[in-house]
Structure formats: C-alpha cells, structure tokens
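Hello, quick one for you while I still have it in my head. Could you read through the record and tell me how the tokens relate to the sequence? No rush at all, and the record is pasted right below.
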Amino acid sequence: MRLRFGPFAFDPHSRLLWRDGTEIALPPRVLGVLEVLLDRAGEVVARQELLDRVWKDAFVTDTSLAEAVSFLRQALGDDPQSPRFIQTVHRRGYRFLVTPEPEGSDQGQTGVRPGSDQGQTRVRPVSDPSLTPAPPARVDWQLIPWSIAALCAGLATAAVWHTATSKPPDPPPVARLELRTAPGTTFDREAAPIAISPDGRSFAWSACDGATDRCALYVRAIDRFDAQALAGTDGAHAPTFSPDGRWIAFFADGALKKIAAGGGAPTPLAAAPDPGGAAWTADGRIVFAASTAGGLSIVDDQGGRAQTLTAPSAGRGELRHRFPAVVPASHGLIFTIASDPDPEAPDTLAALAPDSGGVRVLRRDVRRALPAGIGYLLLSAGSDLQAATFDTRTLVLTGPTDAVAAPPAEGAPEFAVGGNALAIVRGSARPSRVWSDGADAGPLSRLRAIAIAPDSRRAAGIDASGDVWMVDLGAGAPTRLTFGGLNASPAWAADGSRLFFSTRDPDGPYRVVSRSASERSEAPVAVRGLPPQAFPTSIAADGRIALTVFHDGHASVGVAAPDGSPPRILTDGPFDESAPAFSPDGRWLALESTASGRREVVVRSTTDGRRIALTSDGGSKPHWTADGRAIYFTSGRRLLCVPFAGDGSAAASPAQAVLDRAGERPLAVTPAGRVLIERHPDADSAIVVLQWLRELGERLPLPVNPPR
C-alpha cells in the first residue's frame, strides 16, 4: 500500500518513491531512512536508532546518516533551514513533519499503518459492536451505522483523491528588502559586520556610532521595522548566531563573548586579543581565531579552557588561520589561511575534515566564505560575490562559480547567509585615497602595505599581484621593483638608499631580501642570518633591522644586527608583539603588544629592555615623528599623536587626534606629518534577498552524487 505525502508516494514493500507518478531513483540506504521516518511520522527518531535500523551491523558514523538525510532532502526539494518534511532536532535526531496518508485500505482494517519494525502492518484497536447488547430496533435503525460508515468511507476516499491530485502550494516568491542601521550609525568596517540566524528570521550586526566610532550589537527580526541595541556590547565586532538562533557570539575587549539574542548580560568565554571570526557548531562549541599568529581554537559555549584546533604550516608560508565556518551537513569546517602579515591581503580558502583532521586547500585569493544551503559555498573574491557548488561529504568544490548578485558597488562585499536569506552590505565600494593636504594619491591608490621613506619623498607598496612598487611622491611616478613571487612588508633603510622586504615562492616560506632603491637592474639580495617567516618593519641608522617574526603560533619582535648574526628576540611572554619601529636615534622601539589582553602600543628600550605602556584604549601601527619627540598610532578610524620624551617618559598630556572623521581612516603617515587618507562611502544599509537559493539553483544546478 502506497503512502502519500505532498506530491510524493512511497511504497514500503517495494521501497520505491514516486513524485506525481514519476519514479525517483534513490540509493537503498536513503530509502531505508525514509521508510523509518515515515513509519514514525511526527516522532523524533534518534540518530543511533536510524543507524541501527538502516545500516544494521555495518560500521559507520553519524556522517553517513547526515549524507543520507542530505541526499533525501535534495530529492524531496526540502530546505533544512525551513523544512516541510524532515526536521533536524538539535542533538537528538530527525522528525518527519507530515503524516502520510494511505492510498486505500481493506475493509475491517481501519487505522492500518504499513512499515512496522517487523515489516508487517500495525492495527489500531477498534470497537466491536457485538460486545455490547443491542436493544431491539427496526430495520431502518439497523441501517444507520452502515450508512454512516459508507459516508465516512466516501469522505476518506475524496480526501485521499484530493491529496493525490492537488498541486503543491507555490513556493514563496523571491523578495528583496532593505535593512538599515540605527540613525547615526554605520556598519562596522573592522570585521564582518552582519549575521543571519540559521532559520533566516533574525539579523544581528555590529554598527559604529558616527561621532565616537564606538561599535555595539543590534538585532532585528525579519518581520519588524525597528532594531534593538543590546546593552553591554560596547566595542562589539563580528557577531555570529548559535544553531538554534537564541544566542549571539561576538568579540569585544580582547575576549570572545556570548549574549542572549533577546538581551541580557554578556558572558566571556575565552581570550581573543586579535580576533579573526568565529563559528558555532551543532554540538555546542565555538571555533574562533584569537591571535595575530596561529591557528583556530575551540571552546565550549558554556565556557572552559580553549583548545587548539589547527596550526599554520610555516613550511608553506602560512601565518594565520581565520574566518571559520561550519559545514552543517558534514560537521566539517572551512576557513581561510593568511600568508601575508597585511590583513588586507587575500587569503587561501581551505577545508578541515571532521574525521581525518586533514586540511585541504580549495581556492586561492579568497577573502571570506560561508556555506549556503546544501551544496553551495558563497565567497567574496576581489570585488565579486560568487557561489560555487560544493560537495559537503568530501569537502571539495565540484564545479564552476557564478556571480550571486551584482555587488552594490565596486569593492570586496561584506555578506551574510542564513536559511534562505542573503544580506549584502551596501557602501562596500573601493575607497578613494587622498593626502591630508588635498593632493590625489596617484599610484598609491592601487597599493597596500604602504611604507613611507624617512625623507617623506618616496613610498613603497604591494600591488594586487604581489609585486613591490616604488612611487616618487613629488612626481607621482611609479617604478616596479619585483617581477614575480609573493612579496610583503616593505621597509626603508634610514637613509632611503635601500628597500627591505620579504619574499617567497608559492607554498614556500618567506625570506628577507633588500635591493637598491636607485639601481633598477639590481636583483634583491638575501639578508643573512634571519629566520624564515620574518618581516622587516624598520631599519635603524646603524643598519639594525627590526622584524616581526612568526614562529610556533606567535608573533614576536626581533632585532637583527647588520653583521648577519641571528636576531635577538625581544618578546618575553606568551602573547603577540609586532610592527616594531625604531626611533630616529635608534634607542627605542615602538611596537604593538597584546600583553594586556588586547592590542596596545608600547615603547621598549633597545639597551636595557625597559617597557613603557603608551596606550590603554587600543592602539596599533606606531610611527615616529621626524624629530623622535612624538609617536603616531591608529585606534579604529582615528590617527593620534602622543608626545614622548627622550628620557623614555611619556608626556602628561593625552594623545591628540590628528585625524578623526566619519568615513575616513588613516592609511599611512609621513615622518613630517602628512597623512594618506582612505575615504569610504557610508555603509548604513544592506540589501536582503529572500528565497535567493532558488534563483541560484536555476543558474548553478547541483551535481547529483549518491551517498555511500
């Protein structure tokens, strides 16, 4: 006897599935899962029970079951985020949401339900009129029960016929709406600003006040117009939802925290002095990137000690792992690998298998990626927002990419996905660049990792292909210094005669080289005695080289003598320190340090090691003024300058703002105080597309690969 649900019919005896009369070919294990779920329709069937009944004595894991359920959902056209048929019950199992209807039943077997544990029918008890005495009655009264039974049978037949012949309801239309930040705020530019709950019904984002540049979390339901600010989330970045949508994880004050989506007191979970994204797993743990150098960590969402999950490979030039995302169907993980100390450089997309723990490289030149629906990845690459087909079982890309939607403007788009909703932040255009005196940036507009020469007359930077360029700031003339390889971290000699930088071949470690700034034909010369994964940041007048060294999951500051002897590592704790800059007299190093739990600027003596904390509210990218009596540093969008006495004492006066304007951030500053400014358009709204996966499926169909 066939069982009908929606447009489908299933025969438990022959184990065949039809849709509108057309047979759907499915593997035996998938059909076995369907049979058990139909037999227990409306009940939660535990994962282990499904494994025991379908796979019996075979040795398999939950991954095989997840593959079968995913394959069955594809055959039924079911969305796991908004299911019509198969619901995932968190940490318990699966439930079939529709009660199947039999096509017909034999007389005297009301309540028959095919597909029991023994392969036989189960009969619901019915009342027997012979067990109760019947009073004498006329013949017409005796016909009434039979008439009622005939009427019920007719109604049941009509209902079955209507169910079998009626068309399924039309799917919801593709819709687009605008999501706006609170008045006076814009989306955070320091990290991925927006998240969507797994069911696609709620949004959370980090937005920054235009006057103070301080960020906080906001939440809004899809059926509401107003957004709610979450108290206690001052300084919050990079929100992400829990699998049930009831909690939000975020970073603030050098820590990973969580807060109820409806509001409440935030709970610190783990230290994260230099965060790089987080993802919440189905088993109640959070994977996150916590430091300037190193891999991903994982912590229980109830708190506890964080454990190391991945480690970068120094032999392949890896510096950091960041932007994790969970692949729901397989419990695998995707993340990006940073191989450049510049946070604006593109990453490499990789996948981590849950069973083997092996890391597989998927694609290069990717900024961030997220799983989308079943069988797709959504990723930003350059100025494009792209989708690619993705095998969730083997964690490999299976076909070409396709543009998801025209980006709101040129530039790397910020985006989020959840359920059948996609959000793209507007205003993510390529920023414009100008000097603080109003002059156009010229060739510097297309370079990153910009380093200004000590005489303020030249600059160097890295282009999109990874080559080093030198720019004459007076004439605006660019000169290409390298032709191939991957290059990073340019730094000028104190007299401006040479340029130091790190270079590597693909999949190899970095090495420090230098070349003359005036002789174009001279090839870079390797600097002797320096370890791999070292990056020059400042060169003193006596030839000493200040370095950021990546080693054993930490970033450390080192100083190398010009005689080629091994560098002296100055960092003296289990924290990250980087970006050292020599004072003009060579007596002091200003650097970034996370010793306090978040990134701050400290000054350290090169003779006796004395340390002086320069900031207490966040700071990075220190640079000295030409006379060595003050230090520039950045804090969010602001460029500040703090006095520094030659005896090593900071002046009593607080840091003064050199640049603090909404929509602008400092990119570089010359020793003479000229600032290169990057201007961003306002980013106070996002476009939300509902049912976008249906459009994507029509343009980029999934390959069909049955599970084992």
